[in-house]
Structure formats: C-alpha cells, structure tokens
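job 3f2a | input accepted
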Amino acid sequence: MAGSGRSRNPEPRIPHADELGVLPAIEQRAGELLKGHEAYPVFAGHGLDLQALRDGLRRGQLWVVDDADGGGIAGYLLAGGLCGEFHVLQMDVDPTHARRGHGRALLRHALALARTQGYRSAVLTTLADVPWNAPFYAGEGFVGLAQEEWGDGLQAVMAEEAALGFPMHLRVAMRRVLSSMDG
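job 3f2a | predicted structure (183 res):
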C-alpha cells in the first residue's frame, strides 16, 4: 500500500548518545497502552533511567529504529548478558508508530547480532496476557519456560520484578535458541 510504513523495512541502528533522552518518553507512551491493566502501576512508576541506556550503548547492545516517514525514533531495544544468555531487557515502540514492523525489525536485528557474538540463546520476561508481549515473542520463536527451567539469572530477574510489584501470575520467562535462526 503506497504511503504505508510497511513500504520500507525499518533498519535498526546504534543510537547517538544525544538521542538517548527520547527513549524514556517512548517507554512511557508505550506503557500508557497498559492503562487499566494490573501491571500498569509498575510500568508507570518504574522506567529505564539514562544510565541504563548509556550502559547499553557502551556495550553495543542498544538499538533504535527510525520511522520510515521521517518521524524520528520509532522504537528501541535494550539488551545485555544474563548468565551467558542474551537478555532482551526492554523493547518499546512508540504507539504512534505501532504495527509497522519496527518491533520485529529490532528484535530480529538484535538476535542476529547476538548469534554472531556467540550467544546460543536469548531470554526475556514479559506479560503473558498482552498480545504485543508474550504472543508476539512466541511468534518470533520464543517459548515459555517453567519456573524450574529459569536458572539463576532468570530467577534473579523474576525476584526483582516481584519486588517492584509486578503481578507475577501474569509474568512469563521465555527463551529462544539462537542456533535455530534462519540465515
């Protein structure tokens, strides 16, 4: 369809240091989609700080994607290592740029780079009942993990999330084996 954001594939890139300040606002706007959800108070009260973003940039594990229509940064993905696994810490797409493939492009880019860096698997935690959370990641090859499969790193992450007040009955840990990626 002419003029749609789908006409060009978004290309993730490493952000410039002076762009980091716009990412918390993207996270906040994305979190607003959860108004009325049991987890909303946690998202509203606990966002990423600039130091976490600077650390991700320094590690080379922070990517952004620009809107194809020139509307600025549409979304970002912040990652890190967790007990030898690639950890998707946070991914947000500004709701004004949603459903144009930005999240998928960010995730696929990050996972491809993780595989080339020697990571054999990727992990994340997310909400089980939100379509753009666990169902989205399942569509990208992530599978839910039973608590006994978490390992020390995921156990620590889930404990931190419980301490923040997340409704843990709605949280799920997921893993994707990166050697199964195409390409």
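job 3f2a | Helices lie at 23-31, 40-45, 50-59, 102-116, 134-139, 151-164.
job 3f2a | closed
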